[in-house]
Amino acid sequence: MSKEIISTRPPSPGETLLREKFYESVAAQDDLMSKVAGQLLTLELAIPGIYAAVLKLVRGDAATLPLNLAFYLTFGCWLLALGLTLTGLIPRKWKVDPTILRQDPARYGESLGLEDFFLRTAGYKQKLMIASSVLFFAGIISAAFTI
Known about the structure:
Layout: H1 13-59, H2 69-89, H3 114-143
Helix pairs in contact: 1-2, 1-3, 2-3
């Protein structure tokens, strides 16, 4: 074994601040995704109402739509998007071992580490919000073909 001395020093105040900000950003990703879900939920509830109001303004008292594929696709996509957004807002239970920071990826089935928990939660919500956004946009596109 080598008897070489390795010198160390305590972290500088800047390094300490950067480390703290890094861990704060990791922990805040879940909250950020929840805020995105809240904004998306607002849009998903407002757009169908605006769609109905515009339909009423454009067609007057005869504000009806033919039941065709575009109609079912529009409201089906909007309903699925709403379901995915609500799923992202409902808290999910994760098995977490608070004594470890990062779990070995081969042992994720047992429990997650603290950092893994925040990253997994944010990633789970991110996937749901992306899928919800794509479905909602597809619903908006197909709504153009219902009139």
